[in-house]
């Protein structure tokens, strides 16, 4: 029996393998209850195969900016003020398809870490694209080695990182106040965006790692 002098139990930290929360019932894939998608999702643009989430741009469904168009987006709700989300993606071979990770409040308020194939040669480039009510901006691209991406949430800001030369490098940041409020709160997760496809391999983005950690 607990008494008044007993110490309270320690707060349990969260270190969640998001992809590990998918399950199957026969041939059907059961999505984790805490993953959300944009309104009117194109079900054909999402496939969970061999432990990875495959996503394609789609002409159906809503975009990150609320237009009827192409991004495919899956996200976990941010449930702590300070948290870290890491993903590792295999970008599409089609250079017109981009991917990345979005810190998303609603159609008019989101900060995106954009990953694309380099136009200057082999490798990839990453940059920050931000949309707030009435404005939009995009920062200069930074060369990166792979599809490993990280976003760290602090009380006042979000910091975005890519992977180069065996370490995390800063891509940019955005202010938390620009994506605060709303009914659902902030969602963080990967997306695929580009010309609509017939779900072929050239347009496929593979999310092979997705980890959410709360920084207690």
Protein architecture, described:
Strand 11 and strand 12 form a beta hairpin. Helices cover 0% and strands 50% of the residues. The protein is globular, with a radius of gyration of 18 Å. The chain has one domain: Jelly Rolls, CATH 2.60.120.200. Strands 1, 5, 6, 8, 14, 15, 16 and 18 form an eight-stranded antiparallel sheet that branches. Strands 4, 7, 9, 10, 11, 12, 13 and 17 form an eight-stranded antiparallel sheet that branches. It has a two-stranded antiparallel ribbon with strand order 2-3. It is mainly beta. The model has no long low-confidence stretch (mean pLDDT 87).
Features:
216 residues, mainly beta, 8-stranded antiparallel sheet, 0% helix, globular
Mean pLDDT: 87
Coarse shape? globular
Q: Rg from C-alpha positions?
A: 18 Å
- What distance lies between the first and last C-alpha atoms, to the nearest angstrom? 28 Å
Percent strand equals over 45%
**Class in CATH?**
Mainly Beta
Assembly category: single chain
Total E-strand runs: 18
Pfam family, one: GH43_C2
Domain Beta-xylosidase C-terminal Concanavalin A-like: 36-203
Protein name: Beta-xylosidase C-terminal Concanavalin A-like domain-containing protein
